[in-house]
Design brief:
The chain has 15 helices and no strands. The protein is mainly α and about 450 residues long. The chain is globular and about 50 Å long. The N terminus is likely disordered.
Length: about 450
């Protein structure tokens, strides 16, 4: 006897509920009242409700990530070698080399994002890797014969900056092209953990390599990593390619449209604001302000190293938790609260009476920074319209770069005028305040990584 029509929706709803809560996959797919299978919920929801066990990350993403991490390792070695070689010619040359990398990157980022959305992120990455492979081999040969004169170092910096302007937006959009949106938090946490490991080991490895083979040897190592990534990119194909912009639109208009979308979207706008504040007031704390604070408080280099290590441990701990469990709650709200927590850690660092308190404060900074970065990056990527993936990533990198460039100089001068401790406390107040404002933003607070972004209209 068939069940009555009144009971069928109730039974079906109950079965759908089992799909989202049971640890076992049902024997038969459940259908909705329209006859179509319900949307899968194979992840912990953004508001913390338990979901079914995670499916593994796609192999294509893991393969791509392995190649990217190898490239990051090569870049870490090469950047160390470039800076070391520039330092032999004095501070002025070292500053010029750094500016040679940064300036073209900032100027061309929006164009690079527009090209990536117009052509194909994968094609841009393949072209960039091929070009950098050839360049690294040429640089190795020239450096082997001529050494590292300033002209060569500045030219290398310009090439690197131009390549980064096109490569970074395309690379930043690839996780969205390779994994489902609900898996973005785990995918980006894994990438964050790998990046942290590379950062910890890249400097020492670069120092050893430069001591043995100089700039030429570092260039060869970088060439090997570019060749590896090139092979990976030829093999890996995105799950889907986004539609190109309308024909006839100029490249500059496409680039400007990326800025418009980023700062008009209800979720992207506060997300970009929080990212800029984190870049300007949080990221400079350890590399810039900590050495000044340690000298001012007479902590010593060893204690400063412990503070840096404690911050790294806090960040990795949060990313490991996200990698295992998925988002720890609503990503927009947790991003804002993570910024507040990091600001409290910065406040503790600025007021720390000794090294033990400073290490504890740095751990809090790491936990807050990890909570922020593990949730804001997938949220921004998930909220971006598919037609603007690379362009919004370009805007994101540009916001970070400009904030960091500006505040490094401002904070350094403020520390010279009012002391490092007072400057650190000021950074804490701004970070906490913006984090609170972010938590009060309703679109950001209620955003989810698995929500479909609204389509963008060309302006």
């Amino acid at each position: 006897m068939n069940p009555s029509p009144r009971r069928r929706p109730t039974d079906r709803t109950f079965r759908e509920h089992l799909i989202t809560t049971s640890e076992e996959r049902p024997a038969r797919p459940t259908t909705t009242t329209s006859g179509r299978p319900p949307a899968p919920r194979a992840h912990r929801t953004d508001d913390g409700r338990p979901g079914k066990a995670y499916t593994p990350l796609p192999r294509s993403y893991l393969l791509w990530l392995g190649g990217i991490l190898a490239s990051l390792a090569g870049n870490a070695v090469f950047y160390f070698a470039l800076g070391w070689a520039a330092s032999e010619h004095g501070g002025a040359v070292a500053g010029l080399v750094l500016s040679a990398v940064t300036l073209p990157r900032v100027l061309l980022l929006l164009i690079g994002g527009a090209v990536s959305d117009r052509v194909s992120a994968r094609y841009v990455l393949i072209a960039g890797d091929a070009a950098m492979l050839v360049f690294s081999l040429i640089l190795a040969a020239v450096a082997y014969r001529l050494g590292a004169p300033p002209v060569l170092l500045i030219a290398a910096g310009v090439v690197l900056g131009i390549a980064d302007a096109f490569y970074l937006p395309a690379s930043g959009s690839m996780p969205r092209r390779l994994v489902p949106k609900e898996q973005l938090p785990r995918a980006l946490s894994l990438r964050q953990i790998g990046g942290q490991v590379i950062n910890l080991g890249g400097g020492p490895l670069g120092g050893i390599l430069v001591g043995i083979a100089g700039l030429a040897g570092a260039s060869l190592v970088n060439a090997v990593t570019f060749a590896l990534v090139l092979v990976v990119l030829v093999v890996v194909r995105p799950r889907h390619e986004v539609p190109p912009p309308p024909k006839g639109a100029s490249l500059l208009k496409d680039a400007a449209d990326g800025v418009r979308v980023g700062f008009s979207h209800p979720v992207l706008r506060p997300g970009l604001l929080l990212t800029g504040v984190a870049a300007g007031f949080l990221l400079p704390i350890l590399p810039l302000m900590l050495p000044l604070l340690a000298r001012e408080e007479h902590w010593g280099a060893g204690a400063a190293g412990l503070v840096v290590g404690a911050q790294g441990i806090g960040m990795v701990a949060v990313n490991l938790a996200v990698l295992r469990r998925g988002p720890l709650g609503r990503p927009g709200l947790l991003s804002a609260l993570g910024l507040v927590l990091a600001g409290l850690g910065v406040l503790g660092l600025g007021l720390a009476p000794g090294t033990a308190t400073a290490v504890a404060a740095a751990t809090v900074i790491g936990l807050g920074n990890g909570l922020f970065s593990a949730h804001i990056a997938p949220l921004v990527l998930a909220a971006t319209p598919e037609t603007h993936l690379s362009r919004v990533q370009a805007v994101l990198v540009l916001v970070q770069s400009l904030a960091l460039l500006l505040m490094n100089n401002v904070l350094g001068n403020l520390a010279g005028l009012g002391g490092a401790a007072a400057t650190v406390v000021g950074c804490a107040v701004v970070t906490i305040g913006i984090g609170v404002l972010g938590a009060l933003s309703k679109p950001l607070r209620n955003a989810h990584t698995d929500a479909d972004p609204a389509p963008a209209r060309s302006g």
